[in-house]
Amino acid sequence: MKYYKSISRLTFITFFSLLSSIAYSEESSSKFNVYSGMFDFSDTGKKSTLIGFQHQNEDLNRDTFLGNLSPITGALLTADSAAYIYTGVQAQYKLGRINFIPSFAPGLYSKGDGKDLGHILEFKSELQISVDFVSNSQLGFSYNHLSNASLGTKNPGANSYMFNFFKTF
To answer: Which pTM value belongs to this model?
Structure first.
């Protein structure tokens, strides 16, 4: 039952993010990333499937000496009702049809019935590799690590992998 309540929360967050990006401007360009995979695959006792959603407003992209940077906002939910809501920054490097996308995002974590990561504030470091698929769409794979940077009394961390579908509107 908790899983369905958490899915309802994630659906609400996704819907709110979608509405806010559409309300921003009729001419704005938004990229949505829907992903699913395995949360904490390296801990056999606490691994769990996950689903997630990420939004990127491409109008806020900036070319810098570090590459093309843009803000991201998203949420993920595990089958054990653990949830993570985050906002941060990502860089994008294009090599032909292949995209290399590292990101960093602090966020709030709730363990639900899942793994105790030691603190509500967790930091997500992620690497994504995607391929331009069809017009305005990409398919990709990503790996991330959640850590509280030793803010809590314990810092077990969690390693996850995901399969991604990106769509630009």
So the answer is: 0.82
